[in-house]
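FAQ: What does the model actually see?

It sees only this:
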Amino acid sequence: MTEHNNAFTGSHAIVVENLSKSFGDLKAVDDISFSVPTGSTTALLGGNGAGKTTTLSMLLGILYPSSGAIRVLGRDMMQNRYAALSRMNFASPFTDLPRRLTVRENLTVYGRLYSVRKLTDRIKELADHFEFSDFLDRRYGKISAGQQARVALAKALLNRPHVLLLDEPTASLDPDMGDKIRSYIEKYRKEEKATILLASHNMPEVERLCDNVLMMRQGKIVDTGAPQLLIERYGLQNMEDVFLKVARDSDGMKGNVKAVMGLIKEDGGKAVKRKR
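And it is asked to produce this:
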């Protein structure tokens, strides 16, 4: 993989059409369609088992869809995913790096996989930003969960990705470090014109970082819109209340599910209906 500096110029960095994934009789993702505008941050929300992780795994090429299409940075992820993967990255505090390697060794290995230029300087820069310079030479398996989360995010930023997929990036962090990480993510998106897809259960984080929200339930996208739009639509006070209503109140969701069943894609938070 090679580090890229040329920005993607298309209007939507991620385009998903009629995507499904089944595991035997279980339909983990059920015919979802959405797009993420280039340079924006979109939240992928839902309770446990909603299909978020499966969707992220298909976007990364880890899982093949049962049906549907994915384009990232203009590349068909079924036919030519390696051309896009070199310009993408992923972070999750729930995905381990090699535990016997030191933090520095881990970052060096991944940096070389991405052919990162001036890798030593890049590692130092990220270690300074995320405050782990003092344990760069400690084994990854010997540092705390919060420290591992910071290292995982640094790993995901080594190649200055144009598309960044984040799964609960601040879940293991204390409030102070979580705030610093969110500030860095905001700064990175603006400076690099990066596109971010964020799976999170931290609703204040979603309100702060995200331009658009995709609400998933039982493998389907059941509602979508900007955070403030969703708050107003449900007549609630914040995104946490919206999240709980979607997760708990199946009757309250029936009208919204019916409304979005005719959608074929999500365009900047505005639903585009199927032509008849």
